[in-house]
Amino acid sequence: MDAIVVENLTKHFRKAYDKTLKGFFISVAKRESRYEEFVALNNVSFSVKKGESYAIIGKNGAGKSTLFKVLSGIISPDSGEVQMNGKVAPLIELGAGLSRDLTGAENIRLNCAIFGLSKARIRDVYDSIVEFSELEDFIDTPVKFYSSGMKSRLGFAIAIHVDAEIILIDEVLAVGDKDFKKKCYTKMEELRNEGKTLVVVSHSLKPLRRICDRALLLEKGEVKDIGSIDEILDKYESEKPKKKKTKGA
Amino acid sequence: MFADIMKYKELLYFLVHKEVRIRYRNSIFGFLWTLLEPLGLMAIYALVFGEILNKNLVKAYPLFILMGLIPWTFFNNTLRRGTKALSGNVSLIKKVYFPREIFPITILLANLVNFVPAFILVFVIAMFTPGLHLQWYQLIYLPGALLLQCLFTLACTFLVSVLNVYYRDVEFIVNLMLRAWMYLCPIIYPVSLLGASKSDLVREFAWLYFLNPMAVIISMYHGIFYPKEAVTKIPPSMIIFVIILSLLLLVFSWWIFKRLNRRVGEVI
Ligand SMILES: Nc1ncnc2c1ncn2[C@@H]1O[C@H](COP(=O)(O)OP(=O)(O)OP(=O)(O)O)[C@@H](O)[C@H]1O
Ligand SMILES: [Mg+2]
Protein backbone atom coordinates (compact mmCIF):
# COMPACT_ATOMS: atom_id res chain seq x y z
CA MET A 1 0.00 0.00 0.00
CA ASP A 2 1.09 3.56 -0.61
CA ALA A 3 1.77 5.85 2.31
CA ILE A 4 1.39 9.02 0.32
CA VAL A 5 -0.61 9.47 -2.84
CA VAL A 6 -0.67 12.85 -4.52
CA GLU A 7 -2.63 13.40 -7.66
CA ASN A 8 -2.71 16.47 -9.87
CA LEU A 9 -1.96 18.76 -6.99
CA THR A 10 -2.07 22.44 -7.85
CA LYS A 11 -1.50 25.37 -5.58
CA HIS A 12 -1.63 29.02 -6.49
CA PHE A 13 -0.46 31.74 -4.19
CA ARG A 14 -1.62 35.27 -4.30
CA LYS A 15 1.52 37.30 -4.50
CA ALA A 16 1.80 39.73 -1.65
CA TYR A 17 0.13 42.94 -2.57
CA ASP A 18 -0.31 46.31 -0.94
CA LYS A 19 -3.24 45.63 1.33
CA THR A 20 -3.72 49.17 2.56
CA LEU A 21 -6.59 51.35 1.48
CA LYS A 22 -4.12 53.41 -0.50
CA GLY A 23 -2.87 50.31 -2.29
CA PHE A 24 -6.44 49.30 -2.98
CA PHE A 25 -7.32 52.60 -4.62
CA ILE A 26 -4.13 52.67 -6.62
CA SER A 27 -4.76 49.22 -8.04
CA VAL A 28 -8.39 50.09 -8.76
CA ALA A 29 -7.28 53.26 -10.51
CA LYS A 30 -4.71 51.39 -12.53
CA ARG A 31 -7.30 48.72 -13.29
CA GLU A 32 -4.91 45.96 -12.49
CA SER A 33 -6.01 42.85 -10.69
CA ARG A 34 -5.23 43.06 -7.03
CA TYR A 35 -4.26 39.46 -6.82
CA GLU A 36 -1.37 38.45 -8.91
CA GLU A 37 -1.50 34.71 -9.04
CA PHE A 38 1.60 32.67 -8.76
CA VAL A 39 1.77 28.97 -9.40
CA ALA A 40 3.70 27.31 -6.59
CA LEU A 41 2.72 23.75 -7.44
CA ASN A 42 1.49 22.76 -10.84
CA ASN A 43 -0.16 19.43 -11.43
CA VAL A 44 2.10 17.47 -9.13
CA SER A 45 1.50 13.73 -8.96
CA PHE A 46 3.55 11.11 -7.21
CA SER A 47 3.24 8.36 -4.68
CA VAL A 48 5.43 7.09 -1.90
CA LYS A 49 5.26 3.46 -0.86
CA LYS A 50 4.99 2.44 2.73
CA GLY A 51 8.43 2.00 4.26
CA GLU A 52 10.09 3.85 1.47
CA SER A 53 12.49 6.74 1.78
CA TYR A 54 11.81 9.43 -0.70
CA ALA A 55 13.82 12.49 -1.55
CA ILE A 56 12.48 15.70 -3.01
CA ILE A 57 15.06 17.91 -4.58
CA GLY A 58 14.98 21.16 -6.46
CA LYS A 59 16.30 24.66 -6.48
CA ASN A 60 15.36 27.40 -4.04
CA GLY A 61 11.76 28.39 -4.55
CA ALA A 62 10.90 25.24 -6.46
CA GLY A 63 8.01 24.58 -4.11
CA LYS A 64 9.39 21.86 -1.87
CA SER A 65 8.37 23.42 1.42
CA THR A 66 5.02 24.34 -0.08
CA LEU A 67 4.50 20.72 -1.04
CA PHE A 68 5.29 19.64 2.51
CA LYS A 69 2.87 22.18 3.90
CA VAL A 70 0.13 20.82 1.69
CA LEU A 71 0.99 17.26 2.71
CA SER A 72 0.76 18.12 6.38
CA GLY A 73 -2.46 20.10 6.03
CA ILE A 74 -1.07 23.52 6.88
CA ILE A 75 -2.19 24.96 3.59
CA SER A 76 -5.00 23.56 1.51
CA PRO A 77 -4.55 22.84 -2.19
CA ASP A 78 -6.56 24.55 -4.92
CA SER A 79 -7.19 21.28 -6.70
CA GLY A 80 -5.98 17.72 -6.67
CA GLU A 81 -5.98 14.91 -4.19
CA VAL A 82 -3.70 14.31 -1.26
CA GLN A 83 -3.93 11.08 0.61
CA MET A 84 -1.82 10.38 3.65
CA ASN A 85 -2.14 6.90 5.06
CA GLY A 86 -0.79 7.17 8.56
CA LYS A 87 0.14 9.72 11.14
CA VAL A 88 2.32 12.51 9.82
CA ALA A 89 5.08 14.30 11.68
CA PRO A 90 6.21 17.29 9.66
CA LEU A 91 9.51 19.02 10.26
CA ILE A 92 9.13 22.05 8.09
CA GLU A 93 12.01 24.48 7.85
CA LEU A 94 13.86 25.70 10.88
CA GLY A 95 12.19 25.85 14.25
CA ALA A 96 9.53 23.42 13.16
CA GLY A 97 6.52 23.83 15.40
CA LEU A 98 8.45 25.24 18.32
CA SER A 99 6.88 28.02 20.31
CA ARG A 100 9.40 30.74 21.06
CA ASP A 101 8.25 31.68 24.53
CA LEU A 102 8.14 28.16 25.86
CA THR A 103 11.09 26.29 27.24
CA GLY A 104 12.50 23.22 25.58
CA ALA A 105 10.70 20.95 28.03
CA GLU A 106 7.39 22.72 27.47
CA ASN A 107 7.85 22.51 23.75
CA ILE A 108 8.35 18.79 23.97
CA ARG A 109 5.09 18.43 25.86
CA LEU A 110 3.29 20.82 23.54
CA ASN A 111 4.38 19.03 20.41
CA CYS A 112 3.67 15.60 21.81
CA ALA A 113 0.17 16.83 22.66
CA ILE A 114 -0.25 18.23 19.17
CA PHE A 115 0.58 14.82 17.77
CA GLY A 116 -2.05 13.30 20.00
CA LEU A 117 0.11 11.49 22.55
CA SER A 118 -1.53 10.71 25.86
CA LYS A 119 -0.14 12.08 29.08
CA ALA A 120 1.32 8.73 30.04
CA ARG A 121 2.93 8.29 26.65
CA ILE A 122 4.42 11.78 26.83
CA ARG A 123 6.07 10.88 30.11
CA ASP A 124 7.49 7.77 28.48
CA VAL A 125 9.07 9.46 25.50
CA TYR A 126 10.13 12.69 27.22
CA ASP A 127 13.44 11.33 28.46
CA SER A 128 14.42 9.76 25.20
CA ILE A 129 13.66 13.00 23.36
CA VAL A 130 15.90 14.95 25.72
CA GLU A 131 18.57 12.32 25.45
CA PHE A 132 18.51 12.22 21.68
CA SER A 133 18.63 15.99 21.34
CA GLU A 134 21.49 16.20 23.87
CA LEU A 135 19.96 19.36 25.29
CA GLU A 136 19.87 18.34 28.95
CA ASP A 137 21.47 21.61 30.09
CA PHE A 138 19.17 23.87 28.12
CA ILE A 139 15.89 22.10 28.49
CA ASP A 140 14.51 24.76 30.82
CA THR A 141 15.64 27.66 28.65
CA PRO A 142 13.04 29.34 26.45
CA VAL A 143 13.45 28.28 22.86
CA LYS A 144 13.94 31.88 21.72
CA PHE A 145 17.40 31.70 23.27
CA TYR A 146 18.30 28.52 21.37
CA SER A 147 20.78 28.50 18.54
CA SER A 148 19.41 27.33 15.22
CA GLY A 149 21.22 24.03 15.56
CA MET A 150 19.70 23.47 18.97
CA LYS A 151 16.24 24.12 17.56
CA SER A 152 16.77 21.63 14.80
CA ARG A 153 17.98 19.06 17.32
CA LEU A 154 14.89 19.49 19.40
CA GLY A 155 12.58 19.45 16.39
CA PHE A 156 14.12 16.31 14.97
CA ALA A 157 14.18 14.53 18.31
CA ILE A 158 10.49 15.24 18.82
CA ALA A 159 9.45 14.22 15.33
CA ILE A 160 11.03 10.79 15.57
CA HIS A 161 9.44 10.07 18.94
CA VAL A 162 5.79 10.85 18.33
CA ASP A 163 4.92 7.47 16.82
CA ALA A 164 4.35 8.90 13.38
CA GLU A 165 4.30 6.58 10.39
CA ILE A 166 5.24 9.28 7.92
CA ILE A 167 8.00 11.75 8.70
CA LEU A 168 8.55 14.79 6.53
CA ILE A 169 11.98 16.33 6.97
CA ASP A 170 12.60 19.66 5.31
CA GLU A 171 16.08 21.03 5.52
CA VAL A 172 16.23 20.85 9.31
CA LEU A 173 19.54 19.12 9.38
CA ALA A 174 21.28 21.81 7.39
CA VAL A 175 22.33 23.63 10.55
CA GLY A 176 23.17 20.64 12.69
CA ASP A 177 26.83 19.98 13.48
CA LYS A 178 28.72 17.08 11.98
CA ASP A 179 28.16 14.65 14.83
CA PHE A 180 24.48 15.38 15.09
CA LYS A 181 23.97 15.05 11.37
CA LYS A 182 25.67 11.69 11.44
CA LYS A 183 23.49 10.60 14.33
CA CYS A 184 20.39 11.73 12.47
CA TYR A 185 21.29 9.95 9.28
CA THR A 186 21.92 6.78 11.23
CA LYS A 187 18.59 7.23 12.94
CA MET A 188 16.86 7.79 9.64
CA GLU A 189 18.25 4.55 8.28
CA GLU A 190 17.05 2.86 11.43
CA LEU A 191 13.58 4.30 10.99
CA ARG A 192 13.52 3.12 7.42
CA ASN A 193 14.39 -0.36 8.54
CA GLU A 194 11.56 -0.19 11.04
CA GLY A 195 9.22 0.41 8.13
CA LYS A 196 8.55 4.11 8.59
CA THR A 197 8.04 6.28 5.57
CA LEU A 198 10.48 9.16 5.23
CA VAL A 199 10.29 12.06 2.86
CA VAL A 200 13.36 14.23 2.86
CA VAL A 201 14.09 17.62 1.37
CA SER A 202 17.71 18.54 1.38
CA HIS A 203 20.32 20.48 -0.52
CA SER A 204 23.12 18.25 0.73
CA LEU A 205 22.82 15.49 -1.79
CA LYS A 206 25.44 13.06 -0.61
CA PRO A 207 23.63 11.66 2.42
CA LEU A 208 20.47 11.33 0.37
CA ARG A 209 22.05 8.61 -1.68
CA ARG A 210 22.58 6.58 1.46
CA ILE A 211 19.15 7.07 2.95
CA CYS A 212 16.72 7.35 0.10
CA ASP A 213 15.39 4.88 -2.41
CA ARG A 214 13.71 7.17 -4.85
CA ALA A 215 13.67 10.84 -5.66
CA LEU A 216 11.51 13.48 -7.21
CA LEU A 217 12.95 16.50 -8.94
CA LEU A 218 10.80 19.58 -8.62
CA GLU A 219 11.34 22.54 -10.88
CA LYS A 220 9.28 25.72 -10.63
CA GLY A 221 6.42 23.83 -9.10
CA GLU A 222 6.35 21.06 -11.65
CA VAL A 223 7.53 17.49 -11.44
CA LYS A 224 10.52 17.29 -13.72
CA ASP A 225 11.53 13.74 -13.07
CA ILE A 226 10.91 10.78 -10.81
CA GLY A 227 13.20 7.83 -10.53
CA SER A 228 15.71 5.97 -8.43
CA ILE A 229 17.80 8.19 -6.22
CA ASP A 230 21.09 7.70 -8.06
CA GLU A 231 19.60 8.31 -11.44
CA ILE A 232 17.90 11.56 -10.44
CA LEU A 233 20.81 12.87 -8.44
CA ASP A 234 23.27 12.16 -11.23
CA LYS A 235 21.12 14.09 -13.63
CA TYR A 236 20.58 16.93 -11.20
CA GLU A 237 24.25 17.21 -10.37
CA SER A 238 25.40 17.08 -13.93
CA GLU A 239 23.13 19.89 -15.02
CA LYS A 240 23.73 22.05 -12.00
CA PRO A 241 27.28 23.37 -12.34
CA LYS A 242 27.21 23.98 -16.09
CA LYS A 243 24.68 26.57 -16.95
CA LYS A 244 24.17 25.14 -20.39
CA LYS A 245 20.80 24.11 -21.65
CA THR A 246 21.06 20.43 -20.97
CA LYS A 247 17.38 20.04 -20.55
CA GLY A 248 17.01 16.82 -22.46
CA ALA A 249 15.07 14.23 -20.52
CA MET B 1 -17.05 19.39 15.72
CA PHE B 2 -16.69 18.75 19.43
CA ALA B 3 -15.59 15.18 18.90
CA ASP B 4 -12.73 16.50 16.81
CA ILE B 5 -11.65 18.86 19.54
CA MET B 6 -12.06 16.35 22.35
CA LYS B 7 -9.37 14.28 20.67
CA TYR B 8 -7.05 17.13 21.52
CA LYS B 9 -8.01 17.61 25.12
CA GLU B 10 -4.47 17.00 26.27
CA LEU B 11 -3.32 19.78 23.99
CA LEU B 12 -6.15 22.05 25.09
CA TYR B 13 -5.23 21.51 28.70
CA PHE B 14 -1.62 22.29 27.97
CA LEU B 15 -2.40 25.43 25.99
CA VAL B 16 -4.79 26.79 28.62
CA HIS B 17 -2.24 26.12 31.31
CA LYS B 18 0.42 27.86 29.27
CA GLU B 19 -1.81 30.82 28.49
CA VAL B 20 -2.63 31.38 32.15
CA ARG B 21 0.97 31.11 33.19
CA ILE B 22 2.63 33.03 30.38
CA ARG B 23 0.46 36.07 30.88
CA TYR B 24 1.77 36.64 34.36
CA ARG B 25 5.29 35.45 33.80
CA ASN B 26 7.82 38.08 34.86
CA SER B 27 5.26 39.96 36.90
CA ILE B 28 5.61 40.36 40.63
CA PHE B 29 1.96 39.98 41.54
CA GLY B 30 1.38 37.14 39.10
CA PHE B 31 -2.05 35.59 39.25
CA LEU B 32 -3.16 38.34 41.66
CA TRP B 33 -3.50 40.64 38.66
CA THR B 34 -6.78 38.97 37.79
CA LEU B 35 -8.08 40.70 40.92
CA LEU B 36 -5.93 43.81 40.87
CA GLU B 37 -7.00 44.82 37.39
CA PRO B 38 -10.76 45.05 38.06
CA LEU B 39 -10.08 46.39 41.55
CA GLY B 40 -8.01 49.21 40.12
CA LEU B 41 -10.67 50.06 37.56
CA MET B 42 -13.34 49.87 40.22
CA ALA B 43 -11.41 52.32 42.38
CA ILE B 44 -11.21 54.75 39.48
CA TYR B 45 -14.90 54.56 38.63
CA ALA B 46 -15.97 54.67 42.25
CA LEU B 47 -13.86 57.76 42.75
CA VAL B 48 -14.96 59.56 39.61
CA PHE B 49 -18.64 58.68 39.58
CA GLY B 50 -19.32 57.98 43.21
CA GLU B 51 -17.30 60.77 44.78
CA ILE B 52 -16.50 63.47 42.25
CA LEU B 53 -19.77 63.35 40.34
CA ASN B 54 -21.43 62.28 43.57
CA LYS B 55 -23.72 59.76 41.93
CA ASN B 56 -24.03 56.90 44.37
CA LEU B 57 -26.64 55.26 42.26
CA VAL B 58 -26.99 52.06 44.27
CA LYS B 59 -26.19 50.63 47.67
CA ALA B 60 -22.56 49.68 48.14
CA TYR B 61 -21.66 51.35 44.86
CA PRO B 62 -18.06 50.07 44.60
CA LEU B 63 -19.30 46.54 45.01
CA PHE B 64 -21.95 47.10 42.39
CA ILE B 65 -19.29 48.25 39.96
CA LEU B 66 -17.22 45.19 40.74
CA MET B 67 -20.13 42.81 40.19
CA GLY B 68 -20.42 44.06 36.63
CA LEU B 69 -16.80 44.83 36.00
CA ILE B 70 -15.53 41.33 36.64
CA PRO B 71 -17.75 39.65 34.03
CA TRP B 72 -16.97 42.53 31.72
CA THR B 73 -13.23 42.04 32.23
CA PHE B 74 -13.72 38.40 31.30
CA PHE B 75 -15.37 39.43 28.04
CA ASN B 76 -13.00 42.30 27.37
CA ASN B 77 -9.81 40.32 27.95
CA THR B 78 -10.99 37.29 26.01
CA LEU B 79 -11.79 39.43 23.02
CA ARG B 80 -8.59 41.42 23.20
CA ARG B 81 -6.39 38.38 23.57
CA GLY B 82 -8.59 36.43 21.20
CA THR B 83 -7.91 38.88 18.41
CA LYS B 84 -4.34 37.64 18.49
CA ALA B 85 -5.22 34.01 19.14
CA LEU B 86 -4.15 33.03 15.63
CA SER B 87 -1.91 35.90 14.60
CA GLY B 88 0.15 35.49 17.76
CA ASN B 89 0.88 31.83 17.12
CA VAL B 90 2.52 32.08 13.74
CA SER B 91 5.34 29.68 14.53
CA LEU B 92 2.90 26.92 15.37
CA ILE B 93 0.39 27.56 12.62
CA LYS B 94 2.99 27.63 9.88
CA LYS B 95 4.72 24.44 10.91
CA VAL B 96 2.18 21.94 12.18
CA TYR B 97 -1.47 21.30 11.68
CA PHE B 98 -4.16 20.73 14.26
CA PRO B 99 -7.69 22.12 14.40
CA ARG B 100 -7.18 25.85 14.67
CA GLU B 101 -10.43 26.29 16.54
CA ILE B 102 -8.36 25.27 19.52
CA PHE B 103 -6.66 28.67 19.69
CA PRO B 104 -9.77 30.80 20.36
CA ILE B 105 -11.18 28.11 22.65
CA THR B 106 -7.95 28.19 24.62
CA ILE B 107 -8.23 31.94 25.13
CA LEU B 108 -11.79 31.59 26.36
CA LEU B 109 -10.94 28.84 28.83
CA ALA B 110 -7.86 30.63 30.12
CA ASN B 111 -9.89 33.74 30.82
CA LEU B 112 -12.59 31.65 32.41
CA VAL B 113 -9.96 30.30 34.77
CA ASN B 114 -9.15 33.88 35.71
CA PHE B 115 -12.76 34.91 35.98
CA VAL B 116 -14.15 32.26 38.28
CA PRO B 117 -11.99 32.89 41.37
CA ALA B 118 -12.37 36.66 41.01
CA PHE B 119 -16.12 36.35 40.79
CA ILE B 120 -16.32 33.99 43.73
CA LEU B 121 -14.32 36.41 45.83
CA VAL B 122 -16.63 39.32 45.03
CA PHE B 123 -19.59 37.07 45.66
CA VAL B 124 -18.29 36.22 49.11
CA ILE B 125 -17.55 39.86 49.92
CA ALA B 126 -21.06 40.79 48.82
CA MET B 127 -22.53 38.11 51.10
CA PHE B 128 -21.00 39.83 54.09
CA THR B 129 -21.74 43.38 53.06
CA PRO B 130 -24.44 44.91 55.27
CA GLY B 131 -27.48 46.02 53.33
CA LEU B 132 -27.03 43.54 50.51
CA HIS B 133 -29.07 40.39 50.51
CA LEU B 134 -28.40 37.37 48.43
CA GLN B 135 -31.47 36.61 46.33
CA TRP B 136 -31.46 32.83 46.41
CA TYR B 137 -34.04 32.44 43.69
CA GLN B 138 -31.96 34.71 41.44
CA LEU B 139 -29.10 32.26 41.68
CA ILE B 140 -30.72 30.22 38.95
CA TYR B 141 -29.60 32.98 36.60
CA LEU B 142 -25.96 32.45 37.46
CA PRO B 143 -25.17 29.28 35.47
CA GLY B 144 -27.33 30.63 32.68
CA ALA B 145 -25.49 33.92 32.62
CA LEU B 146 -22.13 32.19 32.65
CA LEU B 147 -23.05 29.80 29.86
CA LEU B 148 -24.59 32.54 27.78
CA GLN B 149 -21.56 34.72 28.26
CA CYS B 150 -19.24 31.90 27.23
CA LEU B 151 -21.24 31.22 24.09
CA PHE B 152 -21.42 34.84 23.10
CA THR B 153 -17.77 35.50 23.90
CA LEU B 154 -16.66 32.43 21.98
CA ALA B 155 -18.67 33.50 18.96
CA CYS B 156 -17.06 36.95 18.98
CA THR B 157 -13.61 35.49 19.55
CA PHE B 158 -13.89 33.10 16.61
CA LEU B 159 -14.79 35.98 14.38
CA VAL B 160 -12.12 38.44 15.42
CA SER B 161 -9.32 35.89 15.67
CA VAL B 162 -9.65 34.74 12.09
CA LEU B 163 -10.40 38.18 10.64
CA ASN B 164 -7.32 39.58 12.29
CA VAL B 165 -5.15 37.20 10.29
CA TYR B 166 -6.31 38.85 7.10
CA TYR B 167 -6.62 42.43 8.29
CA ARG B 168 -4.71 43.65 11.29
CA ASP B 169 -7.09 46.59 11.48
CA VAL B 170 -9.41 44.29 13.42
CA GLU B 171 -7.15 44.64 16.43
CA PHE B 172 -7.57 48.41 16.52
CA ILE B 173 -11.26 48.27 15.81
CA VAL B 174 -11.85 45.75 18.57
CA ASN B 175 -9.94 47.80 21.11
CA LEU B 176 -11.89 50.91 20.25
CA MET B 177 -15.22 49.15 20.18
CA LEU B 178 -14.67 47.54 23.54
CA ARG B 179 -14.26 50.96 25.13
CA ALA B 180 -17.54 52.22 23.77
CA TRP B 181 -19.21 48.90 24.51
CA MET B 182 -18.34 49.11 28.16
CA TYR B 183 -20.38 52.29 28.58
CA LEU B 184 -23.29 50.58 26.87
CA CYS B 185 -23.32 47.98 29.62
CA PRO B 186 -24.72 48.45 33.09
CA ILE B 187 -21.40 48.60 34.90
CA ILE B 188 -21.10 52.06 36.38
CA TYR B 189 -24.84 52.52 36.46
CA PRO B 190 -27.77 50.13 37.03
CA VAL B 191 -30.24 49.38 34.24
CA SER B 192 -33.03 50.73 36.42
CA LEU B 193 -31.59 54.15 35.67
CA LEU B 194 -32.74 53.95 32.06
CA GLY B 195 -36.46 53.70 32.78
CA ALA B 196 -36.23 56.42 35.39
CA SER B 197 -34.20 58.73 33.23
CA LYS B 198 -35.23 62.35 32.89
CA SER B 199 -34.26 62.31 29.24
CA ASP B 200 -37.06 61.36 26.84
CA LEU B 201 -34.52 60.08 24.41
CA VAL B 202 -33.15 57.57 26.88
CA ARG B 203 -36.59 56.35 27.97
CA GLU B 204 -37.79 55.97 24.41
CA PHE B 205 -34.83 53.96 23.26
CA ALA B 206 -34.34 51.96 26.45
CA TRP B 207 -35.60 48.80 24.74
CA LEU B 208 -32.78 49.09 22.20
CA TYR B 209 -30.37 48.93 25.06
CA PHE B 210 -31.07 45.26 25.66
CA LEU B 211 -30.27 44.28 22.12
CA ASN B 212 -26.76 44.34 23.50
CA PRO B 213 -26.17 40.80 24.81
CA MET B 214 -23.56 41.95 27.28
CA ALA B 215 -26.04 44.36 28.89
CA VAL B 216 -28.44 41.49 29.49
CA ILE B 217 -25.75 39.14 30.69
CA ILE B 218 -24.27 41.61 33.15
CA SER B 219 -27.74 42.40 34.47
CA MET B 220 -28.21 38.71 35.11
CA TYR B 221 -25.13 38.72 37.31
CA HIS B 222 -26.31 41.87 39.06
CA GLY B 223 -29.65 40.30 39.83
CA ILE B 224 -28.13 38.08 42.48
CA PHE B 225 -27.56 40.98 44.86
CA TYR B 226 -29.34 43.88 43.21
CA PRO B 227 -32.68 42.45 42.05
CA LYS B 228 -34.50 45.74 41.91
CA GLU B 229 -31.82 47.42 39.85
CA ALA B 230 -31.12 44.61 37.45
CA VAL B 231 -32.63 41.63 35.80
CA THR B 232 -36.23 42.25 36.77
CA LYS B 233 -36.03 45.37 34.63
CA ILE B 234 -35.29 43.39 31.52
CA PRO B 235 -38.22 42.23 29.41
CA PRO B 236 -38.10 38.40 29.38
CA SER B 237 -38.45 38.39 25.63
CA MET B 238 -35.10 40.15 25.51
CA ILE B 239 -33.42 37.33 27.37
CA ILE B 240 -34.78 34.84 24.88
CA PHE B 241 -33.69 37.11 22.09
CA VAL B 242 -30.15 37.28 23.43
CA ILE B 243 -29.97 33.50 23.77
CA ILE B 244 -31.06 33.04 20.17
CA LEU B 245 -28.75 35.80 18.99
CA SER B 246 -25.77 34.23 20.74
CA LEU B 247 -26.47 30.81 19.26
CA LEU B 248 -26.94 32.18 15.77
CA LEU B 249 -23.81 34.26 16.08
CA LEU B 250 -21.87 31.21 17.20
CA VAL B 251 -23.03 29.19 14.19
CA PHE B 252 -22.27 32.10 11.90
CA SER B 253 -18.80 32.79 13.23
CA TRP B 254 -18.00 29.08 13.29
CA TRP B 255 -18.87 28.96 9.61
CA ILE B 256 -16.82 32.07 8.81
CA PHE B 257 -13.93 30.63 10.78
CA LYS B 258 -14.05 27.38 8.81
CA ARG B 259 -14.11 29.24 5.53
CA LEU B 260 -11.37 31.72 6.23
CA ASN B 261 -9.29 29.10 8.00
CA ARG B 262 -8.45 27.48 4.68
CA ARG B 263 -6.03 30.21 3.74
CA VAL B 264 -4.78 31.05 7.21
CA GLY B 265 -1.69 28.88 6.75
CA GLU B 266 -0.48 30.94 3.82
CA VAL B 267 -1.45 34.51 4.62
CA ILE B 268 -0.37 34.54 8.25
N1 LIG C 1 2.52 31.84 1.90
C1 LIG C 1 2.99 32.19 0.69
N2 LIG C 1 2.44 33.20 0.01
C2 LIG C 1 2.91 33.55 -1.21
N3 LIG C 1 3.91 32.91 -1.84
C3 LIG C 1 4.51 31.89 -1.21
C4 LIG C 1 4.08 31.46 0.09
N4 LIG C 1 4.85 30.42 0.48
C5 LIG C 1 5.71 30.20 -0.53
N5 LIG C 1 5.52 31.07 -1.55
C6 LIG C 1 6.24 31.08 -2.81
O1 LIG C 1 6.23 29.79 -3.35
C7 LIG C 1 7.49 29.48 -3.94
C8 LIG C 1 7.99 28.16 -3.40
O2 LIG C 1 8.41 28.34 -2.07
P1 LIG C 1 8.96 27.14 -1.19
O3 LIG C 1 9.18 27.66 0.17
O4 LIG C 1 8.07 26.00 -1.36
O5 LIG C 1 10.36 26.86 -1.89
P2 LIG C 1 11.40 25.71 -1.54
O6 LIG C 1 11.42 24.77 -2.68
O7 LIG C 1 11.11 25.16 -0.21
O8 LIG C 1 12.74 26.52 -1.52
P3 LIG C 1 14.02 26.32 -0.56
O9 LIG C 1 14.90 25.34 -1.22
O10 LIG C 1 14.66 27.67 -0.54
O11 LIG C 1 13.55 25.91 0.77
C9 LIG C 1 8.39 30.66 -3.67
O12 LIG C 1 8.48 31.43 -4.85
C10 LIG C 1 7.68 31.43 -2.59
O13 LIG C 1 7.89 32.81 -2.75
MG1 LIG D 1 12.05 25.22 1.68
From TrEMBL, chain A:
CDD domains: ABC_KpsT_Wzt. This is ABC-2 type transport system ATP-binding protein/lipopolysaccharide transport system ATP-binding protein. GO terms for cellular component: membrane. GO terms for molecular function: ABC-type transporter activity; ATP binding; ATP hydrolysis activity. Keywords: ATP-binding, Nucleotide-binding, Translocase, Transport. SMART domains: AAA. InterPro entries: AAA+_ATPase, ABC_transporter-like_ATP-bd, ABC_transporter-like_CS, ABC_transpr_TagH-like, Bact_Polysacc_Export_ATP-bd, P-loop_NTPase. Residues 4-245 form the ABC transporter domain. PROSITE patterns: ABC_TRANSPORTER_1, ABC_TRANSPORTER_2. It comes from Marininema mesophilum. Belongs to the ABC transporter superfamily.
From TrEMBL, chain B:
The chain crosses the membrane at residues 28-48, 60-79, 102-128, 140-166, 178-195, 207-226, 238-257. Belongs to the ABC-2 integral membrane protein family. Residues 29-260 form the ABC transmembrane type-2 domain. It comes from Marininema mesophilum. It is found in: Cell inner membrane; Cell membrane. GO terms for cellular component: ATP-binding cassette (ABC) transporter complex. GO terms for biological process: lipopolysaccharide transport. The keyword Transport applies. Its main location: membrane. The lineage of its organism: Bacteria, Bacillati, Bacillota, Bacilli, Bacillales. It is a multi-pass membrane protein. It holds the Pfam family ABC2_membrane. GO terms for molecular function: ABC-type transporter activity. Keywords: Cell inner membrane, Cell membrane, Membrane, Transmembrane, Transmembrane helix, Transport. PROSITE patterns: ABC_TM2. It comes from the Bacteria. This is Transport permease protein.
